[in-house]
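Protein modeling request. Please complete all fields; requests missing the sequence field cannot be processed.
Requester role: graduate student
Desired output: 3D structure, token encoding
Chains: 1
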Amino acid sequence: MRNNVTNNNPVFWKAIEAIIIDIIIASISIILILLGIKLIFGKQIKTAIDYVNMISINKNSNIVKDLKFDENTKTIISYPEYGTRYGNFKIDSLNIALPLYYGDEMSYLKYGIGQSSSAYFPGEGASIICMGHNNKGILYDLPKIKKDAIIEINTTYGDFKYKVFKTKIINMNDVDEMEIQTDEEVLMVYTCYPVETLGEKKDRFVVYAKKIDN
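Delivered output (214 residues):
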């Protein structure tokens, strides 16, 4: 008898209807708020997530060991696959020691230093371009580097040292400042600048270093 009275009570059903409407309105409001946050802060959120992902640096991935160097032609006989670690990158004066990967995509750069596929390899007598993120643990301290500092690249086919002769802040579109040339082995290492700020930056801090005899 009590159930019938409840089921036929219009006040009861209006209360249920009001609750359902409130739930729908609240859900729609939450969705609109989330969409608004994504539209306004989407880029910043993505950047923050990328930096969180880069905090853990994997230094234990295996180095490619089947690389061989032809001293006569100054070329690598078998190049590493894109995305593989083929050496180590060191700047002792800045306490930097990181894995060196062949490739410049985010999935590789979050672990260490990447080497551009558009340039040459260490030992080939031409331009080498390396890059790394400007977060702590990677190249945050790169702007502190001094002239004549030594940069080392250690691979399974040879160890190479480069002496810094110049640093420069350039715009990301100044491609002429990092031109590929083949008459001298010059290592160019860059990171986003200024290093203290998050998000996308238009400037790059570039270190130029010439190969020295081992």
